[in-house]
Amino acid sequence: MEFRGGAGASELGEIRTLKPCLLLRNRSRDQHGVAASCLEELRSKACDILAIDKSLTPVTLVLAEDGTIVDDDDYFLCLPSNTKFVALANNEKWAYNNTDGGTAWVSQESFDVDETDSGAGLKWKNVARQLKEDLSNIILLSEEDLQMLIEVPCSDLAQELCQSCATVQGLQNTLQQVLDQREEARQSKQLLELYLQALEKEGNILSKQEESKAVVSEEVDAVDTGVGREISKTALTSQVLTALREKPAPELHLSSQDLELVTKEDPKTLAVALNWDVKKTETVQQACDQELTLRLQQMQSLRSLRNISARKNLLPGELQNPKRAKQDPT
């Protein structure tokens, strides 16, 4: 509601917007209705109406519902009419107090609630208000906050968000999905770190093996040296050789390029590099060749499907008459 000031204010055209509010003291049920245009005016009226000693300043105004400190005029103006404020003098701390009408039958012991339970209840309400203001705040919530909202009874959360139970149930399902995705991301990160550590460890082992092979190759006779030169001519990397030795189906763990290199390698040279017999080496090369052929066939099939799909997307007129002579306007 709007009120004009006195005659002087009327001459200046000043209009003050007064917001009706309710004032009460900490741990008190007595409420006082006032109207103020700003926080400073509300503080001043609180001192007068609630008989707060001016020497106990500063006076802090907090929301009676959850103890949120209100110290900004813009935020004050955004609050709904008849918002309840608790005036705290000097170093007083806000204490939860149920002052809603119709609850006078509740015993005084119910107000002496456990501090931990009360704090937890207020916490999920504050988090729920963040979502009520902007649903995109989901990405800013911690996993603890997400789990807390998921565990809140659907009816309580629906009442806090002013939504139906069906809508809130869908929201809680979405929160659970976000929580699950974060857990999957964490597990994937841990697996990746373990994989990188394994690769680093494997690289160190292979480098030591290569060093030992180099020392041995220097001490062998001319025949063995010739064989060593044959091995050095192989184009396969140490990782490919390791996969061939250790994997039960190595052809499934190699890229198409590596498969092609394996199939083109001389069986005797590859057998020496792997420390296998030639028959076993040829069997592995055949498996790699079959896998490579299968991948090429799949690639060709995929290209054919793409071409067919592209043709179907053409307009019927374009397909039947790809080139049409321009008609004479006459």
UniProtKB/TrEMBL annotation:
Pfam families: CIDE-N, DFF-C. This is DNAation factor subunit alpha. The keyword Methyltransferase does not apply. Gene3D superfamilies: 3.10.20.10, C-terminal domain of DFF45/ICAD (DFF-C domain) (1.10.1490.10). Keywords: Apoptosis, Coiled coil. The gene is DFFA. SUPFAM superfamilies: C-terminal domain of DFF45/ICAD (DFF-C domain), CAD & PB1 domains. It comes from Galeopterus variegatus. InterPro entries: CIDE-N_dom (IPR003508), DFF-C (IPR027296), DFF45 (IPR017299), DNA_fragmentation_mid_dom (IPR015121). The keyword Coiled coil applies. Residues 17-96 form the CIDE-N domain. Residues 168-202 form a coiled coil. It comes from the Eukaryota.
